[in-house]
Amino acid sequence: MLLINALTFFIVAVLCFLIYRKASRLGMRLFGILIGFISVFYIASGILNMLWFFEVIKWGILDAIIVGSAFKMPVSAMLLVAFYFLTKDKKFFIFFIVFLVALFGFGMQPVNFFVTLVLLSYILVILSASHMILSKNYLREACYYAIAYSILSIALIFLIFFKNVPPIWFIPNSMLCIAYYKLFTGLEKSAETKKVEKKKENLFWVSIKYLVFIITLMAFLFLSTLAIHEIGHAVMASIAGCESKAVLYEAKILNPFTEIHCANENSRVIILLSGMLTPIVFGILMILTGGRFVRNMGLLIISLGIFMTTGDLAQLNVSMNYVILLNVFASVFMVLGITKFSVVYIRKLPPEEEGKKEIKKAQEQEKSAKKKIINHMK
Hints:
Number of strands: 2
Distance between the termini: 47 Å
Order of helices and strands: HHHHHHHHEEHHHHH
Shape: globular
Structural class: mainly alpha
Helix content: over 70%
Radius of gyration: 23 Å
């Protein structure tokens, strides 16, 4: 089983190397270089599984999670940057910045860091792939397999932890192999043309795609907002000389909260308030400085930040009436943010004349690209 895992990792590494060669040949140099770097991590994963198989080193769940997080984080980050260079879509850069903030926040709470990092990385892959599918990107066929890979990987992590299932990574890795193969074959289409598609899609499938995107976006923003919340607590606790610990789940408390141990009660209050206010301030800055997409994310971060204050407000003995009122405001912000995202992604098709112009432009680009390929082959 570990040997099969290693084989699938090596296959993915080879596909990444082939994508690097092809992207370089087609003039997508930066994209190709980043995918080439990613192949190194898959080679390392394959070698590690070989060492486990031959019992050179002993396999353990905790070690596997730590190593997996160390590999998954840079791979997810480089994929985001790579697709930013490929598509010039600024939304990938926005996801990348929020991802880095989340890494910094969870890094301040080492107990939760590794498991959360792996989960956040897979969610980021699903979010990015869903965005490309909704944007009708020409590589969306690869994105379906990338989503399947991430979902299977998340499920396998939970099964390994709670059901002692063996590490059958070759199952999700098979989806990853297909995703990279589709990416490899799709690059040719990128070089030749980016045709304007006017096919009507079934409303049901459009709704399912959008629902997957929104659920994944909310999961990504929930973890990111939680990290920002922890940054506020950790920074202020460090200044005040206190200790803080994030609690993601407790039997009788639904919301995440932070345990704070301070000799001075005033410092404890300031630390609790700083964690509550940091996501709200971060969201307001996004609204004031960003474009439409960033402003929508800011609204959702504010709403999630308010929801996360419930546990902290309880520690401050704030009346439940005020807590409920705040949650009502948070619900309004959340509905508003999701509605605005709907406007961004569910758009009407361009008018007929505008569509003709875009098709003509695409045809001219196709002719130009074909000439370049012919000249390159000569």
